[in-house]
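User: Structure please.
Assistant: Input sequence and predicted structure:
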Amino acid sequence: MDTEAGLEVATFIDTTGSEILDIIDSVTSVVTSVEWIGPDYDQYTSDWNSFVSGPVAGLVEAISAKAEELRVDAEEQDTASNGQ
């Protein structure tokens, strides 16, 4: 593995996770700014918040974990290559 490239990819993966959060934050602002009163709106915003805190948060955590996995693999490769 080209470990420098691996670390760059890991950083890109992390950045992508952050960008997803930024987009979701923007969408959440739009969702909560709608002039809509009543139980349907309350249910929708509750469902939206559950979506954000559940599947979206899980996706971002998984993305971060994959970036960390690649970072560790690159560091291990460097260690193994330098030990030879």
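The CA atoms of residues 1 and 55 lie 32 Å apart.
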